[in-house]
Amino acid sequence: MMWLFLASECLFFGGLIAGYLLYRGRSVTGPYPKDVYDIPFTSVSSFILIISSVCMVLALAAIQRGDERGMRVWLFATAALGITFLSGQAYEFTEFYREGLTMKTNLFGTTFFLLTGFHGAHVTVGVLILMSLFVMSLRGRITQEKSLNVELAGLYWHFVDVVWIVIFTLVYLIQQ
Amino acid sequence: MATEYYEQQPVGVGDALRSLRHEAANYRGILSWLATVDHKRIGMMYGVTAFLFFLVGGIEALVIRSQLATPNGSVVNAEQYNQLFTMHGTTMIFMVVMPLSSAFFNLLIPLMIGARDVAFPRLNAFSYWVFLVGALFLNFGWVTGDVPDAGWFGYANLTTKAFSPGHGVDFWLFGLQIMGVASMAAGFNFIVTILNMRAPGMTMFRLPVFVWMTLVTSFLAVLAFPLITVGLFQLFFDRFFAANFFEPVAGGDPLLWQHMFWLFGHPEVYILILPAMGIVSEVLPTFSRKPLFGYPFVVFSGIAIGFMGFGVWAHHMFTVGLGSVANSAFAVSTMLIAVPTGVKIFNWLGTLWGGSISLKPPLLFAVGFIAMFTIGGLTGVTHAVVPSDYQQQDSYYIVAHFHQVLFGGAIFGLFAGVYYWFPKFIGKMLNEKLGIIHFVLMFIGFNLTFQPMMILGLMGMPRRIYTYSEGYGWDLWNMIATAGAFMIAASILVFIINVIVSLNRGEKASADPWDGRTLEWSLPSPVPPYNFAEIPHVQALDDFWHHKYAEDEEGRPLPVVVGAAEEPHEVDVHSIHMPSPSLFPLISSLGFPTIGFGFLYETALVPVGVAILLFGIYGWAIEPAAE
User: Which pTM does this prediction carry?
Assistant: First the structure.
């Protein structure tokens, strides 16, 4: 079922990305991508998100061998890195805002903020799920038999990460 | 028992909820309906709700037809007319045909695959409640006077704040978005159910065709709805946050909306028709007393229609200027999709041919479906020819086409299902004579309403005009169409009378009144909560039929002596554990309209709605699924 949900999410992000690509280079006024992007900064936060996926894998491995404490450590790490990524996004968005780019400004602002905004919302939900698993584990409700719950959360988290890789490539790296 | 109750006072939310669930599990009272997770009850709720909206949409249609019966009509003004055709279309598609199909999925899928319920019973209930609140939200404009009026397809940039400043479009936007959540959740649920919960021996190619069509429809829903979700979010951000998706001044393109909408919208029409095709594929064999002709072809055609349905969307956009290359490509793909559809029609005819035909209402509606859908489909092929479509687009010829396939097709097919399965779930037969009268009146009324529209369209009458002058030669055909519409209304009255009379004094239905072929007919009527006392072991397609009949040397059915080979064994049905009822699906669903009202009227409600949704979801996650 998670795979089905992720399939529908592919269509969802696909639609948003298509909107971004369709409108690329068609903004009537600035600021334009090259005016506001800070590729080194965004590269670092992308790297952080990728590392968080590694932590997620370690969390799943821990619970699959019955190590509840280990799982909690790695879940915490995943969530912490996720929050770091989100903070980076928040900083980036406020910088863009200061430089005069909002959803209203032009097509770039509209499509960029909707796409990355929804991605950020998905990461936020992911962080909430991870924190819920953490708290439930403290109450002894996530055991080796229930490792499927962690696996499902992991699938979601990896998906959100992969979507970011696609976005980072198409939106930041490949500019017209 | 009374002393026990007093000794065990609920001591916290958990205990209180548990005692509520125990009460609801008794299947008594309104609480048991609000908290039900039983697929049969959910199916009935979908069916009743959809039928009530059918009456609403039907009244909207009757007002439209009254306005258009004569030239220079004055029943409604232009603004009201726009609201009427918008709401009629939106209602019929999203609040009638789709939920009626969902009703049948819910009632039948677990029974046909030999399961006790769907994979995720609470998610199933959630789908229903979210559908209901979404439908009510969309219609809330009738209360405030802000009725959606930009068409069921909501073309940008008519729908932007500049051109639609009132709340009408907002009700439409949020209502659809909310109902989309319901459809997707149901899609996930049924795919997992069909793939994972089949009884032992029920391989994929022993599934009834209705189950296959449900599977394809569910995949279509899961993959197509995200696209309208994106489009609606883009519109939402344009309207509420001054984004530029559809702002031409900023470089935005109204065509973006059309692409997003029709990328969803075309698969959507296959979502609307495939379930009815599935129903017809079940009814025809039973009333011809023959197996479905070409079962694998019917299944693969359904799958092909599902895939190809994603490749034809721009045939709704031939007249917007996409260019001849794009137009030609979509023209070809559209013509190709007629092929699997035609395959199904020939297989249905092959099923009837040489069969022992029993002209009962389910069969009448199923045959009506074949005839009407074929006509509608043929007109569809004429639209696929691009230069021809240049004349037909936005004329009544298109109106005729889609009513021919959606009413003559889907609605007739769904009524076939109602007459066929009513005895199974209600335990009483619908009156046959009234059923035949319903069919005859509806068939004649339907043709009187929509065949003239083909002529009107070819004579040049445009769509979405609130009136027309004399002198075009349209008057007579419009008058006939209106008369037909009222005849349809009369036929629905007959149906309602039939239901009321049958509920009260209908003949008691046996388990298998039609001598059916599929597993649901092996169960008592009405079906007990746990469905199967013992999960069946399936050995063939139409397994139930083969339990009833062997074949003689010429292939004719020979009844098997009941009980000859099987020893009856006692099953303790009280030891069957069914999923517990839950109020959390309903509670969660209430978050959505709260968020909607928040954006429309009072922003503070938005976090409240989110909180309700989160509370509902967390409660759902933490409570045990069965105890």
Answer: 0.93
